[in-house]
Amino acid sequence: MFEGYDCGGLSLLETKEYFNEIECSFIEKAHNDWRLIITIFGWLTLIKGIVRIGFSEIAQKSVKAFENKQILIKILLIIMVVLGAWLIWTGFYQ
Fold first, then answer.
1. Domain count, the chain
2. Percentage of the chain surpassing pLDDT 70?
């Protein structure tokens, strides 16, 4: 049925391999360069600011969603402290 059909782009297998290479290079870069983590934090902070200013209803709903989830908040706090300690160690002592 589709024999000889040329879509002019990458096949599904080539596309998966392409995204796999991007993912692997991203992970390799993240392990070797702390500046990538800082850049991601910067972009996430920018997006968070845009949502807070432009879409305050969404921000208020997300705050209400976390009100009764104290365990989740503690887990996120621990993750942030560990990540902060790693960034301090990488930035100053490596």
1. 1
2. 66
